[in-house]
């Protein structure tokens, strides 16, 4: 079972050190953020598998961080907070948190929550792989097994890179993918900063996919950030 990448959002150094030391001891990969603004940036840039989020942050309330992340991602968020009132838990869960751990907490309980979340992630990924051999979004249809894509009844004649880009976007539908994430996923780290080349490939893909270039249906550009495939009814 591969260890997920975890974003730890905590401004209290003693708590942050406890969490990161625990993660390191159990071979988890992790990133840290000391406040809400940095947390949002790290979440959008690195696409972590799980977020461990304190609510009492110095700049933005943790509930607002959850709401912001939920506008573009369903990544699991586990709240770790000293707020123990039911209303606080309900507010966080209603905003989109997946779990709530109250401070002070035991290392064993934190690890147990992570294992449960990871099992759920793996189950979802396995179910998706088994069920979604054909992806459909509006007139777009991708047969992953056959390696073909169609717009309506017509097959799209895509280059290998265009097809890889289309599949990456479709498998993350509704999620903003950063330039770095896309280039590393398609070409590896050697292309990390080659955003100009990515734009060229994305432009050629759009010409084949979008009937009206001025009103794109499928691929949305987030200037300075990346791209997202939109859900088409």
Automatic annotation (TrEMBL):
This protein's UniProt keywords: Cytoplasm, DNA-binding, Phosphoprotein, Transcription, Transcription regulation, Two-component regulatory system
Modified residues (4-aspartylphosphate): 54
Main localisation: cytoplasm
PROSITE patterns: OMPR_PHOB, RESPONSE_REGULATORY
Residues annotated as signal peptide: none
CDD domains: REC_OmpR_KdpE-like, trans_reg_C
Cited function: May play the central regulatory role in sporulation. It may be an element of the effector pathway responsible for the activation of sporulation genes in response to nutritional stress. Spo0A may act in concert with spo0H (a sigma factor) to control the expression of some genes that are critical to the sporulation process.
Start-end of DNA-binding region: 132-231
GO biological process, alphabetically ordered: positive regulation of DNA-templated transcription
Family matches, as SUPFAM superfamilies: CheY-like (SSF52172)
Ranges for domain Response regulatory: 5-118
Pfam assignment, any one: Trans_reg_C
The organism's place on the tree of life at top rank: Bacteria
Residue intervals of the OmpR/PhoB-type domain: 132-231
GO MF annotation terms: cis-regulatory region sequence-specific DNA binding; identical protein binding; phosphorelay response regulator activity
Name of the protein this chain belongs to: Stage 0 sporulation protein A homolog
